[in-house]
Amino acid sequence: MFKHFYILFCYVVLLFSMLFSPLTQAVPDFEQLDKSVVLIVNKQHAGVATGTGFVINEQGYVVTNNHVIEGGGELFVVDGGEQITRENLRSARLKWSSATKDLAVLQVNGLNRPYLKLSGFELVKGSRIHAIGFPGAASSTLNTDDVAESTVSGGEASRIVDGHWSDNSQVLQIVQHTAALNGGNSGGPLLNNCGAVVGVNTMKSMQSESGEIIQGLFYASYISELVSSLSAQNFIFHETSESCKLSSTVTGDNPNAAQSGVSLWITGLAILMALFALVLTLRRPRQQIVQTVESYSHWLRRSEVKKAKEPDYSVPSVPEHSVLKPSKKEPILVLSGFDANGQAVHLRLPGEQLKVGIMIGRSAKLVDMVVRDSSVSRRHVKIYLKASALMLEDVNSSNGTQVNTKTISPFKAVSMNMGDKVKLGGVELTLSAE
C-alpha cells in the first residue's frame, strides 16, 4: 500500500514541477549594475546637454562619449536614484577625449561607486546584449523634481563592422545591435549577459548611402576601441577573461539566477523520484520473468534426462552360434565430502545424466542435484561429458569454484580426473567412483 502511494506521490511532484517551475534563463543583476552607471550633465550657456557614463575603476574614472562633453561647458555627474537638481551635481574633470573615436574619460572626486569590468572576449554574433542609460533625463534648466533613474533595453549583437563616426575619420570597429537607444543613452555601457562591457553606445540610427534613415538598428563603439585607448593613456581599468555563457550570471545574489537554480533542482529531483518509482513499478514483473525463464530451463533439462533414461525394448540381433556374455557394469562417478556444518555430501553422477549435463546448486527448483549450504549459489556448477572427458563449468556463482585449490573462471570449463578436489563455495568434495 505504501509503495503505491509513494509512486503516485512521485508522479504528482513531477507534474507540478513541470507546470509551475519553468526553467527561466538567468539575466544580469541590473540592480547591482545600475550603481555603476551615472548621468552626465554638460552645462553650457545655451542650455544643458545630458548623456550617460559608467565607472571603470576605484579612482572615480568615468567613460562616456566625446559628443556628450564637447562644447566647453561645465561637466557634472548625478548618481542614479538622485533628483536632478543643482544640489546633487558632482563636479567632473575631463581627463582625455577623442573626437575620432567619440570617447572621453572624466574623473569625479569622491565618487564611491562600483566599477564595471570590460569584456576580454570577442563578441559573438547573436549574443544577448543590454543597454543601460538615461534617455531624456533632464530639462534645459535643471529645475526639476525628476529622479535620475536609468532604463534598460535588451537585444542581440547583429554584427561587428568597420566604420567611422564622422566623415573621413579613422576606421573603427563598431557594434551593430538591436537594443533600443534614445537621446541620453549616448556614452552608456553595452553589456553582455554576464554584465561585462562589450561596447560604448554612441548612435541610435545611421543613414544609408542613399540618405535613408535605417530603423531598428543601433550602434556602439566596440570594446577593443575603448581598451586600446585606456591602455594608451595608462588609465586603470579591470578586464575579465571569463567567457560568458547565455545562462551566466553576474553575482550570486541575482534573484533571477536563484529562481532558475531552484527550478532546475526541483525538476531534477522530481525526475529522479519518478525514475525511482518506475523502477519499483517494474521490479516485480522483472522478478516474475526471471523466475519463469529459470523454471522453464529446469523443466527442459529434466525432460532431456527423462528421455535419456527411457529403456530400449528393442531386441538386439545376435549372430548365429554367438554366445551372450554378461556386460561389465560401468562405474558411477561420485562427488563426496562434507559441508561447512560437517554434514556429509554424496552426489552420484550417472553416466546417462552426464551426457546431457548435471546442474549442481542450492535451489531444488533450479538444479538437478542439491547441496544445502549457504556458501553454494542457487545454480553453482554444471558437470557434463564431452568427448569422453568429464568437464566442470562454474555458472557465475557468488563464492566461486576451485579445482585442486585453483579458482576457475566462470563459464570456462575445465577437465576433471579421478581424485580431483572440488570446492563449491565452502563445501569441499572429492571425485571418485563406486
TrEMBL record:
It comes from the Bacteria. GO terms for biological process: proteolysis. The chain crosses the membrane at residues 262-282. It comes from Candidatus Venteria ishoeyi. Pfam families: FHA, Trypsin_2. Its EC number is 3.4.21.107. This is Putative periplasmic serine endoprotease DegP-like. Residues 358-408 form the FHA domain. SMART domains: FHA. InterPro entries: FHA_dom, Peptidase_S1_PA, Peptidase_S1_PA_chymotrypsin, Peptidase_S1C, SMAD_FHA_dom_sf. CDD domains: FHA (cd00060). Residues 1-26 form the signal peptide. Keywords: Hydrolase, Membrane, Protease, Signal, Transmembrane, Transmembrane helix. Gene3D superfamilies: 2.60.200.20, Trypsin-like serine proteases. GO terms for molecular function: serine-type endopeptidase activity.
